[in-house]
Amino acid sequence: MATELPRKEAVVVGVGWAGGIIASELAKDGIEVMGLERGAERTIDDFIMQKDELRYAVRYDLMQDLSKETLTFRNDRDMRALPMRQLGSFLLGTDLGGAGVHWNGMCPRFLPYDFEIRSQTIDRYGEDKIPEDMPLQDWGISYEDMEEHFAHFDETIGTSGEDNEMSAPRSTEYPTPPMVETPAIRLFKEASSELGLHPYQGPSANLSEAYTNPDGQTIQQCQYCSFCERFGCDYQAKSDPIITVIPTAKETGNFELRTHANVRSISYDGERTDGVYFIDMLTGEEFFQPADIVILTSYVMNNSRLLLQSEIGTPYDPDTQTGVIGKNYCYQIQTSVQGFFDRQFNMYAGAGALVGHVDDYNGDNFDHSDLDFLHGGAIRLMQTGIRPINTNPVPPGTKQWGSEFKEANAHYLFRTLSIGAEGASMPHVNNYLDLDPTYTDSLGDPLLRMTYNFTEQDRNLAAYQTERMQEIMEEMGANDIVANPDIGDYNIRPYQSTHNTGGVIMGGDPDTSAVNNYLQMWDCENLFVVGASAFAHNSGNNPTPTVGALSYRAAEGIKQYYENPGPLA
Question: Where are the residues of the annotated region Disordered (predicted)?
Answer without folding.
Answer: 158-179
